[in-house]
């Protein structure tokens, strides 16, 4: 078994330090600071848009469902909210599993405009705004993002997750539209 002399150990240390200053490694540090991964892998614009919309949709659905449970007096609205909360928690976990390991998903990505619009409302005013903004408009936006990912995404795992989840999101839109019709809320 050979041992390195102090001189060869110093040479290895110097060579290692020199490598830290190379442009290639500097670009890795830049990539990490700018949101790209250390491996250089980044999401395409379509994949990134999908991740942003899907995480915001899930977070907003979960947060507004909690709000609906507290601020609505309507059993149908509360039942819809419960269903959305459970499903979007599952969808959120599926997206986390599908995302590349070197991509960090946004956390607490709740749409502040929707939350602000709903926070001060109660009763029928809350119900109508919740159904219109979350049940219908929010799901319309999500359906378009999921369809776009299925058709144009480049990350196979994200496309698969979008394809698997799209029928659920489309079902939510139909449920939101049916609830709007039942409650006389114009879309």
UniProtKB/TrEMBL annotation:
InterPro entries: DUF4142, Ferritin-like. It comes from the Bacteria. Keywords: Signal. Residues 1-31 form the signal peptide. Residues 47-179 form the DUF4142 domain. It holds the Pfam family DUF4142. The keyword Cell division does not apply. PANTHER family: BLR2558 PROTEIN. This is DUF4142 domain-containing protein. It comes from Robbsia betulipollinis.
């Amino acid at each position: 078994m050979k041992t390195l002399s102090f001189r060869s150990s110093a040479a290895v240390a110097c060579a290692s330090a020199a490598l830290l200053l190379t442009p290639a490694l500097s670009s890795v540090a830049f990539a990490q600071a700018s949101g790209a991964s250390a491996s250089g892998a980044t999401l395409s614009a379509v994949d990134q848009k999908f991740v942003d919309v899907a995480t915001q949709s899930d977070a907003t659905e979960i947060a507004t469902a909690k709000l609906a449970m507290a601020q609505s007096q309507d059993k149908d609205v509360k039942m819809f909210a419960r269903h959305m909360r459970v499903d979007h928690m599952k969808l959120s976990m599926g997206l986390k599993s599908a995302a590349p390991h070197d991509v960090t998903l946004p956390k607490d990505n709740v749409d502040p405009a929707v939350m602000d619009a709903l926070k001060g409302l109660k009763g029928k005013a809350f119900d109508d705004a919740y159904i219109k903004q979350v049940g219908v408009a929010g799901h319309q936006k999500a359906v378009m993002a999921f369809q776009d990912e299925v058709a144009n995404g480049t990350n196979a795992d994200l496309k698969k997750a979008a394809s698997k989840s799209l029928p659920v999101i489309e079902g939510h839109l139909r449920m939101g539209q049916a609830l709007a019709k039942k409650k006389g809320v114009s879309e």
